[in-house]
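Dear colleague,

Thank you for sharing your sequence with our group. We've completed the structure prediction you requested, and as agreed, I am returning the results in plain text so they can be pasted directly into your records. Please verify that the sequence below matches your submission; if there's any discrepancy, let me know and we will rerun it promptly.
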Amino acid sequence: MPQHRYWGAAELHLAHKSIDGQYYWAGIFIKDKFMSYILRIRPWLCCLSLALVLTLTDMSAVISSGDKIAFAASPAKSSAIAPTAPGSNVRPPASQKWGKPAALPTNMLPQPSSSTDWGRIRLGVKGNVSIPNKDSGILVQSQGESWRQFRMNDIVVYGALSILGIIIILALFYSTRGTIRISAGRSKKKIKRFSALDRFTHWLTAVPFCILALTGLNLIYGKDLILPIIGPEAFSAITVVGKSLHNFMGFAFILGIILMVILWVRHNLWDKYDWGWILNGGGMFNENVHPPAKKFNFGQKIIFWAVVLSGASLSYSGISLMFPFEFSPFAGTFSFLNNFGFNLPTNLEPIHEMQLTQAWHGLLSVLMVALIIAHIYIGTLGMEGAIDAMWDGEVDENWAREHHSAWVAEMKGEPAPEPLTERIQGESVAHE
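Please find the predicted structure tokens below.
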């Protein structure tokens, strides 16, 4: 048998030494180690036991309700002070008898806090704080709840209605009108419509916009539509990549808009042919009606100005979101609109500016997506020969004469067609 030698419980170990000089641990070591552990935590156990005893002795009643148990403190020993009147934070002294009406204390002054004060806090009134971040003085930022409701509910509904609505309208139009054909048929003659720089500008704007639209829609609808299909890992990877693409493609989109303005703004001003084009619906509803137009008809001008103005607003709001709290787009905008009779707030907190910016960016984006879907339709499936202008820059001459006869006449030195002043019923006005 091995010889036992105790080194003391406080030393936390016990060695058994055998005759052959080898050490091993036996059950007695486990016992002593457990005892030494108890000695180590004994002060904490004493404190915990004392606190438990004091707590139990201070409880005077146990109120049982079903399977729930609530403890009530003694009124005589309670330091809780009940309010004396609605809207007051003054409480009666602890010596007040249990169940008796509250008595106004004589050692403190009333400090009324009316519902108006709490209403101001609820509406986001800023208080004074001693820390550097003065925005921390806002206890309740109520506009945040309004923004959350808009972001999670309203914009989802409005965006779906806009995008699905335009798709349904285009599908109904295509089912009744079909592809708008070249009435005179294709000729063997081509006419140069766009230069290489024009086409570069178009695609520099179009490709980034499509990427921005897809990655932006993923942020709104991806969690509900894509996540259940591909799973969280794939969705997370796609969204992270999409976020980076969304940020960097925005700058390419901005450059495209700038080039559009430089190259095409002079062709997108109102001219004498636009009213006739409007009266006849651009010839969209009658295959024999072709209102004359210059290089861009009124419908294309709408697309141009929508892309330029909305794109500029989206670019500014997007940069504001990329660099938060650096810009204040809405304070100045609201101040300008107030000159026209609006009564909009102009003293906006930075967080409120960000909320309004995000809401505006999202709402304008889904509306732009709906508009560009219509533009893509009319340039591809909706009209024969339209896409040729952006492929190689050349279009069929018969197509050009039917849709842009004033421009063709200008290019070839021919007499300009007369603008339409009334609606034409089934009569072709294009050059033959």
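Summary note from our side: The longest helix spans residues 142-177.

Kind regards,
the structure core
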